[in-house]
Amino acid sequence: MNWFRDYLLPRGAASHAGEVDGLFMFIIYLTIFFFFFNGGLIFYAVRRWRRRSAGETTPHITHDTRLELVWSVIPLMVVMLIFFWGFKGYVKAWVPPNDSIEIVVTGKKWVWQFEYPDGTRTLNDLHVPVNKPVKLVMHSEDVIHSFFVPGFRLKRDVIPGRYTELWFTATQPGKQQVFCTEYCGKGHSDMLATIYVDTPEQYEVFLREGDEQVRKMPLKELGKLVYENKGCATCHSIDGTRGQGPSFKGIWGHTVKGADGKDYEVEANYIRQSILSPQAVVVQGFEPIMPTFQGLLREREIQGVIEYIKSLQ
Ligand code: CUA
């Protein structure tokens, strides 16, 4: 009967999908059975006890204790079975294993943003390794959204001002569609995301080199994205305003005076060093407060920042 399940549901691709399907199909078959069973009884009764002559009267029957017990106790047992079966699955589905990879999910009109343990962020594309438990910690920046992955048999509301969680272990490499299933405004039906279930090697490449966006975006644009998303903008302006750190405007190719009194030319190696070992040279008049971005930026992202600064003449 797998064709029937495949007709009703997308193919299950996460660890507990089988369990959800088992219970779901049990309820479907039970419903089909009782549809025909009850319908058959009604047909039988209508034929068997139909009024045969004009003056016929029915006997006065108030109740039948045995019959009432049968139709109360059997359904009670069936619904208790469904309850405990469902409760067991519910507990399993909501308690993530301790070694899960934790990914922060932010829903906002009308995109899904994902943040990985290493600080990598992606929009509408979620990369996860196959056969590893993944926990999603979700919140919303505006209204209520709902994160729904049919192939994983998972759905949970994403709410402003509080965290909700989901977890899964993807079992099939490939793509999964994510929908928003809480009506959240005019872009609701466009609020889609794709989960890429990667092999361990693909996931490594993704973490090291970034997603398609990081690998293919022109360097200057990538640099601008890094500047905006990784916190550079909090201290370094791009319009010449003095902040906690020197502005990026017009520094490329010029020399700056270090706290040690020496002159340094702002070129690729200088910028690279300033990102990875910011205390090596501190520009005169500024505090040595910049944290290192060692391990937080990929090689291509650093090149992007260099190109971006170069463009700010
Ligand atoms: Cu977000 Cu609907």
Notes on the structure:
- This protein is of the alpha+beta class and 313 residues long.
- It folds into 3 domains: 2-39 and 65-94; 101-209, Immunoglobulin-like, CATH 2.60.40; 217-311, Cytochrome c-like domain (Cytochrome Bc1 Complex, Chain D, domain 2), CATH 1.10.760.10.
- The chain is 37% helix and 20% strand.
- A hairpin with a 2-residue loop joins strand 1 and strand 2.
- The longest helix has 32 residues, at 17-48.
- Dinuclear copper ion binds next to loops.
Layout of SSEs?
Elements: H1 2-8, H2 17-48, H3 65-94, E1 101-108, E2 111-115, E3 121-123, E4 125-129, E5 133-140, E6 145-149, E7 154-158, E8 164-169, E9 174-180, E10 193-198, H4 200-209, H5 212-216, H6 219-229, E11 255-257, E12 263-265, H7 268-276, H8 299-311
Parallel strand pairs: 1-5, 4-10
Antiparallel strand pairs: 1-2, 2-3, 5-8, 6-7, 6-9, 9-10, 11-12
Helix pairs in contact: 2-3, 6-8, 7-8
This protein binds dinuclear copper ion (CUA).
The site of dinuclear copper ion (CUA) has 9 residues, from loops.
